[in-house]
Design brief:
The protein is an alpha+beta fold and 129 residues long. The longest helix has 33 residues. The N and C termini lie far apart (98 Å). The model has no long low-confidence stretch (mean pLDDT 87).
Length: 129
Amino acid sequence: MSQSSVDSVTIEVVYASPSEQKLLELSVPRGTTAAQAVELSGIVQLFPEIESAPLDLGIFSLPLDGKGRPLPHEYVVEEDDRVEIYRPLTIDPMQARLARAEEKRVAREAARDSKKAARQHARNNNPKA
């Protein structure tokens, strides 16, 4: 094993915009944190919409959020780690759920009103003799 492979680890840094995704493989010095790996990758220059701080990062879909896992500036990357950069949410998940529930309620009411109108139409056009 060469001295450089002992002193470095190979990792991936990934980001997906709505229109493009990028996976960069790079070697970083042992002891590099996830936040430093993103900086070393240069991915921020490829995607200017990535805010430089604070970044939401994860390792293989596990968020580095300080809740059971370290923060990005604390987590030291390991061989074959995939550092993922997460985009901010465009809508609060609770608001999205409420909007979907409201759409379903409106659709149910429209279907019920449509059936009611069809029954009324049938009664008006087929009077009993």
